């Protein structure tokens, strides 16, 4: 298995006359958690699509070594399927029904939704639906998880709980993760490394490593420090002053 499952080398992406990304070079290590932040519309989702293989660069080289699963802002659950049936979609490669059911039961225990196996998505809260989406994304032989603002539709307290859920799930089922988010606090709390992009055409403004072990409290000194640094890089210095109370 590659120690660098995701690599972009001098990658640019244009749509007609508009250049969205300009000569981006990124190497992401195995089981590393990388968050990507930047101004609205700078090309964060385009970057994720290049990493997934859904889109191709206009120039440069995009490489991936491993099986990719995606998690989006709006959950992709099928409304006519139950919790167990939605999770089972990620296990279609298993030929033995007993093994498939065993893994489904294990994943439902892992996301702490025992008793909801036969519920449909409309019967679940937003946070519960996102837990089912994460379980499906973590099934089978996927070893790369790409996430496009997966918690942004949730309220603040639900987002905090989902960060804890994600950190817990990744302890049990480690993956290489790339998270695109507009939430600076979320990036600092979850990621091993935060990539800060400039405005369009996006280039890498700064890469910031956060060495504290996951999971981290919001009040952890490295989380607080990283949040301030990222806000400053994005030109929101007055918000860092407000944080002093």
Could you describe the 3D structure shown?
The protein has about 240 residues and is of the alpha/beta class. About 35% of the residues lie in helices and about 25% in strands. The protein is built from 8 helices and 9 strands. The strands form 2 sheets. It has a 6-stranded mixed β-sheet with strand order 5-6-7-3-8-9, with helices on both faces. A 3-stranded antiparallel β-sheet has the order 2-1-4. Strand 6, helix 5 (about 155-170) and strand 7 form a beta-alpha-beta unit. Helix 4 runs parallel beside helix 5 and helix 6 (about 185-190) crosses helix 7 (about 220-235).
Secondary structure elements and pairings:
Elements: E1 6-15, E2 18-28, E3 33-37, H1 44-52, E4 59-64, E5 68-71, H2 83-88, H3 97-110, H4 126-137, E6 144-148, H5 156-172, E7 176-180, H6 184-190, E8 193-197, E9 204-209, H7 221-233, H8 237-242
Parallel strand pairs: 3-7, 3-8, 5-6, 6-7
Antiparallel strand pairs: 1-2, 1-4, 8-9
Helix pairs in contact: 4-5, 6-7
What's a concise summary of this model?
The chain has 245 residues and is of the alpha/beta class. Helix content is 34%, strand content 23%.
Short descriptors:
single chain, 245 residues, six-stranded mixed beta sheet, three-stranded antiparallel beta sheet, 8 helices, 34% helix, 23% strand, globular, disordered C terminus
Q: How much is the radius of gyration in Å?
A: 18 Å
**Element-level helix/strand string:** EEEHEEHHHEHEHEEHH
Q: In this structure, how is the largest beta sheet organized?
A: 6 strands, mixed
Termini, distance in Å?
A: 47 Å
Strands of the biggest beta sheet: in what spatial order? 5-6-7-3-8-9
Dominant shape = globular
Per DSSP, what share of the residues sits in E-state strands of 2 or more residues?
A: 15-25%
SSE-based structural type: alpha/beta
| Poorly predicted segments | 238-245
What's the total count of β strands? 9
Number of helices: 8
How would you state the average pLDDT, rounded?
Answer: 88
Roughly what percent helix? 25-40%
């Amino acid at each position: 298995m590659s120690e660098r499952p995701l690599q972009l080398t001098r990658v640019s992406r244009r749509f007609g006359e508009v250049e969205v990304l300009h000569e981006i070079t990124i190497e992401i290590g195995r089981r590393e958690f990388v968050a990507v932040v930047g101004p609205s519309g700078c090309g964060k989702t385009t970057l994720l699509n290049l990493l997934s293989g859904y889109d191709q660069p206009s120039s440069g080289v995009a490489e991936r070594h491993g099986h990719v699963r995606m998690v989006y802002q709006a959950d992709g659950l099928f409304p006519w399927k139950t919790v167990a049936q939605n999770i089972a979609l990620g296990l279609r490669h298993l030929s033995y029904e007993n093994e498939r059911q065993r893994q489904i039961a294990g994943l439902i225990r892992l996301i702490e939704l025992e008793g909801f196996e036969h519920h449909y998505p409309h019967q679940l809260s937003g946070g519960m639906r996102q837990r089912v989406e994460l379980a499906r994304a973590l099934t089978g032989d996927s070893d790369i998880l790409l996430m496009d603002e997966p918690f942004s539709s949730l309220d603040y307290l639900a987002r905090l709980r989902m960060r804890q859920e994600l950190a817990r799930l990744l302890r049990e089922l480690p993956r290489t993760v790339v998270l695109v988010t507009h939430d600076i606090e979320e990036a600092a709390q979850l990621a091993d490394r935060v990539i800060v992009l400039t405005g369009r055409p996006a280039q890498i403004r700064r890469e910031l490593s956060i060495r504290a072990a996951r999971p981290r409290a919001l009040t952890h000194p490295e989380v607080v420090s990283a949040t301030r640094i990222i806000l400053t890089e994005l030109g929101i210095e007055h918000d860092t002053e407000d944080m002093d109370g």
